[in-house]
Automatic annotation (TrEMBL):
Protein name as annotated: CBM56 domain-containing protein
UniProt keyword annotations, A-Z: Signal
PROSITE patterns: CBM56
Record's signal peptide: 1-32
CDD domains named among the record's database cross-references: GH55_SacteLam55A-like (cd23669)
Iron-sulfur listed as a keyword: no
Domain of life: Bacteria
Organism from which the protein derives: Amycolatopsis acidiphila
Gene Ontology terms for molecular function: carbohydrate binding
Domain CBM56: 31-119
Length: 768
């Protein structure tokens, strides 16, 4: 809770006088009744929610309140889609809540009169259920999510026109509506009156949604820098440096709200772009060599606090350009969630910091390095569909697929795992400028048994979409406006920013593109799931960060409908450079980060992370709670570049048949309090569990590490748990005890030795 300095140890009357004087000094005055609406609503027997909705959007709203005339609190309220809210706890029936507001309006701040609310007065009711998407006319089957703002309430619903009651069908997950249907719902909770009945009609197959015309040269908002070769190098460098300085520091920027994208129009630039947190660097050509940087695009151990290590260089990216490095080699010393895609490096590529300190793993795809790519102190790395002059280095787990110039398969000494091709791949959609100066989004074609960059023999094969078919998401957009754009047939282009969602985003149209730049961050509020993708062909998700909200979500992203048998092999869903965070920024909670139900889905570079560090109060065994990073139910799902860390039960559960994983990096939870709290029938939970009924699964290049820093007496029985059947095969696995904080007894099932001391690996080459 944020407390203002004015509220500490002052009598209520003094604070009111102080606030009024401050408002006058800032040009404020008493509020006008037409400026806002406000309310206090009972949520449960012990909770009430204060709400304030300004007529004019406010930069901030503070609420001041007293319970029973004492203990004044002063809190910066939470903006929930334009309505500012604060929940008050520890109330009892008859508690009198006195409250008033200070709010910003077009610069000055204003004070409201005092209001009162009595807990339990009258018959409090459950909040009316909401539908996502709302009712309307749709071309295809819809996946409908129901929700209510009342914590602990359940929802009952009907689809036959009957009025729902407490005895109607209980809502337990998304409803599939495949024909025209009216869904009715009521919220129910013991001790509260039932909610009003809500209804929404979904008309299916009557019309084809067509995106209303958007601009081909849109305003991308204030966080997107667009550079032109006609601009002076000094002016470009000045902007790059300013952005870097704002997002450089590991201590202050790692969990900041800054988001930015550097986009270079086709041409040549003599600049050096140091890439900080939440920064995307990309060329706007159709192919990498349309934009050339005569200089560098650099990530290093930038800060004194890093002590020469690059272990926390997360959330930054480079894409779709050529680099002529100033010193002969470009440096990209990163950890997780920092892809390097579609780059033509005219020289070498150094994947380690200049200090030779450790870095914690990364990802390269669709890239050409004419010189040597050197990992040196990188702990693990995955390279896909690329071309290297040569490779040097290997600490624990270096994996290559479809990469010419990669080293031979020599795991575990040195620890190189090499596949000649990538079974199925499709590079990411990306923004570019066409010859007439209009923006388009290119969609690379699906590749099978690929080797080398998609553009090695000319332009990348594929198709493109005009920006007039994209809704550009930027400041001011809400979940409702985004869902409206999706329902009308638009694709989505997310610009850098943080987007709070009070309803689930529903992607229901086949071949929808959802593309983000500058790490746009989606935060679900009130326990909703952030996004659902229907069981349809060809949806492409790229460049998004899902950040769990403070109320538990069942999942952050769900792809498809569980139990679906539809094949999407010819046009699969792809989830690429999509990242998940539980805690760190806020005290987030989500049971599962990513659920994949659609068959044939491509998971290409994700990092699902339950935070082990972050802002104060956002991290702890009972604070940022999350069971599982990835749950796969669909068949024929392929993961290329899978990073999952610190979840409290199984990190990955794979229940779908014919799954494949190429490269897996994992750390078990650091903060296990004791063995009794972390037990699946054996000590701990496996990092990667293949379901007991699965008969076909194969994986290559997998590492799992433990660091039980809270209680080093904790152990895990094994890192990988699989059924014993001929069709389940694992290659090149290892476990490590970092600084010998706890142990992992076996690598896979009962095979493999206990993790040794000295931060050394225990290896298994093939299982069974």
């Amino acid at each position: 809770m944020h407390r203002s300095a004015a509220g500490r140890g002052r009598r209520p009357g003094v604070l009111v006088l102080f606030t009024a004087l401050l408002a006058l000094l800032l040009g404020g005055t008493a509020a006008a009744a037409t400026d806002y609406t406000q309310s206090a609503t009972q949520l449960s027997g012990s909770q009430a929610r204060i709400s304030f909705t300004p007529t004019t959007p406010a930069a901030y709203v503070d609420v001041h309140y007293l319970v029973g005339g004492t203990g004044q609190q002063n809190v910066r309220m939470t903006n929930n889609a334009g309505s500012w809210q604060q929940t008050v706890d520890n109330l009892s029936t008859g508690s009198v809540l006195e409250y008033w507001f200070t709010y910003e309006k077009s610069g000055p701040q204003y004070d409201t009169p005092h209001f009162t609310y009595t807990q339990g007065a009258g018959s409090a009711a459950v909040a009316t259920p909401t539908f996502s998407p709302g009712g309307g006319t749709f071309a295809t089957t819809q996946t409908v999510t129901l929700g209510t703002a009342t914590p602990g309430a359940s929802i009952r619903y009907t689809v036959d026109g009957a009025t729902p009651s407490a005895s109607s069908t209980p809502y337990s997950g998304p409803i599939t509506v495949s024909r025209t249907t009216t869904v009715k719902a009521v919220g129910v909770k013991s001790g509260l009156a039932d909610s009003p009945v809500a209804a929404a009609t979904f008309t299916i197959g009557q019309a084809s949604a067509t995106c209303p015309a958007q601009s081909d040269t849109p305003d991308f908002g204030p966080n997107v820098r667009i550079f032109d070769p006609g601009m002076s190098a000094a002016s470009i460098q000045s902007q790059l440096d300013a952005d870097f300085n704002a997002l450089k520091d590991t201590q202050t920027a790692q969990f900041s709200t800054g988001r930015v994208a550097h986009l270079f129009k086709p041409g040549t630039y003599a600049v050096h772009d140091n890439v900080g947190y939440y920064t995307s660097v990309a060329g706007l050509g159709q192919n990498p060599d349309d934009v050339t940087i005569n200089g560098d695009v650099t990530v290093d151990a930038f800060n004194a606090s890093d002590q020469g290590q690059a272990l926390q260089n997360f959330w930054r990216s480079a894409e779709n350009l050529a680099i002529n490095p100033s010193s002969g080699s470009d440096r990209w010393a990163v950890a997780q969630a920092a892809p390097f895609r579609r780059i033509d490096v005219h020289g070498g590529l150094q994947l380690y910091p200049a200090s030779y300190g450790y870095a914690s793993g990364g990802y390269v795809a669709d890239t050409k390095v004419s010189g040597q790519a050197a990992s040196v102190s990188q702990q693990q790395w995955y390279t896909r569909d690329s071309s290297l002059g040569s490779w040097d280095g290997g600490v624990w787990n270096m994996v290559f697929s479809g990469t010419t110039g990669a080293p031979a398969n020599t795991f575990p000494n040195p620890p190189e795992t090499t596949l000649a091709t990538t079974p199925v791949s499709r590079d990411v959609p990306y923004l570019y400028l066409d010859g007439s100066g209009k923006y388009r989004v290119f969609q690379p074609s699906l590749r099978t048994n690929a080797s080398g960059p998609s553009w090695a023999n000319g332009a990348t094969p594929g198709t493109s979409l005009p920006m007039n078919q994209f809704h550009v998401v930027k400041a001011g957009d809400t979940a409702a406006s985004i869902n409206s754009a999706l329902a009308s047939g638009c694709n989505l282009f997310f610009t850098p920013g943080i987007y709070h969602l009070d309803q689930t985003l529903n992607v229901t149209r086949a071949d929808t593109v959802v593309l983000g730049i500058g790490y746009p961050t989606l935060v679900p509020d009130n326990g909703v799931d952030a996004m659902h993708v229907a069981d349809v062909d060809g949806v492409r998700l790229k460049g998004l960060l899902f950040d769990a909200g403070t109320t538990n979500s069942a999942s952050l992203l769900t792809v498809g409908t569980q139990g679906s048998s539809a094949s999407h092999a010819a046009d699969p869903v792809s989830v690429q450079d999509v990242f998940f965070r539980i805690g760190g920024q806020i005290a987030g909670k989500a049971t599962t980060s990513l659920v994949v139900n659609s068959n044939d889905t491509i998971i290409d570079h994700i990092w699902a992370w339950r935070a082990d560090h972050g802002n104060g109060g956002t991290v702890g065994w009972n604070v940022n709670t999350a069971d599982t990073g990835l749950l796969v139910n669909g068949a024929n799902v392929l993961a290329t570049g899978l990073f999952v860390e610190h979840y409290q039960k199984y990190q990955v559960v794979w229940d779908g048949q014919n799954g494949r994983t190429i490269f897996f990096q994992n750390e078990m939870p650091y903060d296990v309090p004791d063995q009794a709290s972390w037990n699946s029938g054996v000590n701990g939970y496996a990092a990667y569990k293949v379901g007991d009924n699965v008969t076909s699964h194969e994986a290559w290049g997998l590492g799992s590490y433990c660091f039980f820093s809270t209680n080093p007496a904790v152990s895990a029985y094994h890192a990988f748990e699989v059924p014993h059947t001929a069709g389940v095969k694992f290659h090149d696995l290892l476990t490590v005890s970092l600084n010998y904080q706890g142990t992992i007894t076996h690598v896979i099932d009962d095979a493999g030795a206990v993790t040794p001391s000295g931060t050394a690996p225990s290896n298994v080459v093939n299982f069974p």
